[in-house]
Amino acid sequence: MIGQLKIALLIFLVLAVFVHGCKDTQTSPPHLPQEGASVLRIAVGRDLYDGPDSRSFIHGNLNAWESLTYLNEKLQPKEWLAESWQMSEGGRKWVFQLRGGVVLHDGTSLTQEMVVANILRYKKHPKYDPYGLYRDLLSIQPLGKRGVAFFLEQPFPHFPAAINYFGSALFHPECFNTNGQFIKFIGSGPYRFETNKNGIIRLHAHAVYWQGSPPFKTIEFWYIPDAVTRLNALKAGQVDAIADVGGILPHQLTELSQSKHLLIKRTTVATTHFLLFNTQRLPFNDLSHRTWLSTTLDRFRMTRYILGEAGIPADSLWTPLATDWYERVFPQGPSGSTPTQFQREIPVSILLHGGTLQRWPYKDIAEMIHSHLNQAGLKAIIRIEEAGSFKESLKRGNFNLALHPFTLMTGDPDIFFTWLMTVSPLILGAESKTMESWVAKARYEMNREERRRIYASLQKWVAEKRLLLPLYHDVVFYAHKESLHGLSLDPIFRPNLMAVSMNKNLHGQ
After folding, report:
1. What is the C-alpha to C-alpha distance for residues 205 and 498, in angstroms, rounded to an integer?
2. What are the residue ranges of helices labelled H in 47-193?
């Protein structure tokens, strides 16, 4: 009997060691403690933590902070923390009426003074206002019971759209120090920021959110930069969804469609992908060379074979979702021929941001452009740089061509032209003064039809000068477990986490 017990004990110890050893050799990311259906885990391909020295500390996709206005499906402004607004004094005064009953994460109520403090932070620290939305702000002050009045030096016809989302992100004033940097985070969104550890941002439900109780106790956003690892995490059940722009690469869709118990969804977003020209450097300082590449590069074929349904060949400078401003000024198909006087001994560099390669098929697109240039006798090279070096190369003009995304975050052309004038001074060159004049005129023009006319002319001018080439408009694919309901992305790819629910145990327990 004692001998049998010793044998049983020995078998138990061997099995225990074996199981422990198997756990130690796991290569996939470990699960955090399971919490059943109270936890929702979403994988993304970019870091949504911006840090203390940023305009919002964390990205708006996390649903932790809110703004005065937001955009609807047609990229037009809609009410959010402001329930209405009114313009007067020829567009130089805007009054926003705040929504009542908004409680912040620390239990305090949203006040007019809080809004004033946030807007003055943007005004006093322009680095948190990268598009100069408050460049013409003279003053801001409370008005009446819940009103906030903006007084502007110039008319601002699209002000409610311009300050949507990141443009008027609101936080408790105690969040900032005298330099405008975050020292804590207190917002008003349905989920409050808890931690950011090992690439996982953890948020907890805001129990007294003004739109009602959030559906999950906890939400985690997992930053998984590698596209293969990201997809494997979803297939293995480590995360419940991949939901962000660029979260799923086009070539992964076939594999994903073969996975059981996963749903694939798609939505057109306000992002357009561009090929930028350095117009101050050989060979594309010559308009005929820019014209050749713009008219011979087959963007329709590129979209069809590289992107499939994940892109729409671009014939305009920005998304067709902006129906008020959409102009078809770039033919989709090739129409040109090889120029006769290429200086072929000069190398042509195609600059890529390394951080984009696991979110969009930029490498494949660059290789197609590379082949196209080589066939014309040009010596092309593809150069990949990380964020800091990429921005510096754009600034200094250390490129011939560059791939770059842009999202029409306000739904208005002004933000596109502001971006174009700042992304690299080597794109516009001597044309910058002409563009600045046109953009300023359109920005302050109160007659809507006249604004449309100016922007239509500007788009045609940019197309004629071949300052850049729109390649395709983004169609985002995202996926989640079939047990998850209500998950969707809007045109600015923000998930509506208040509409999501789970009809069974989240992790199959």
Report:
1. 10
2. 112-124, 159-162
Cα–Cα distance, 495 to 505 (Å, whole number): 21
Range of the domain at 99: 65-175
Contact 335, 273 (CB under 8 A): no
pTM of the predicted structure, to 2 decimals: 0.90
Q: What are the tens digits of pLDDT across the range 343-397?
A: 666 789 999 999 999 999 999 999 999 999 998 889 999 999 999 999 999 999 9
**What beta strand segments (E) does 3-143 contain?**
39-44, 69-71, 77-79, 82-88, 93-98, 137-143
Count up the domains in the chain and report the number. Answer: 3
Residue 4: inside a domain: no
| Cα-based torsion angle of the residue sequence 363, 366, 367, 370 in order, rounded to the nearest 10 degrees | -160
Bridge partners for 351 per DSSP: 383, 402
Asked whether residue 462 is domain-assigned, the answer is yes
Check whether residue 325 and residue 402 sit in a common domain.
yes
* Token pair of 309 as six digits: 């349904």
Q: In this structure, are 278 and 247 located in the same domain?
A: no
The Cα–Cα gap between 374 and 367 comes to 10
Give the C-alpha distances (Å, rounded to integers) separating 424 from 70, 290, 380, 440: 28, 17, 21, 19
Kindly report, residue by residue over 440-459, the tens digit of the pLDDT: 999 999 999 999 999 999 99
Instruction: State the Cα–Cα distance between residues 488 and 276, nearest whole angstrom.
Output: 31
Q: Is residue 205 part of a domain?
A: yes
**461/434 Cα distance (integer angstroms):** 10
Q: Are 378 and 402 in a shared domain?
A: yes
Which tokens belong to 490?
Answer: 């809007």
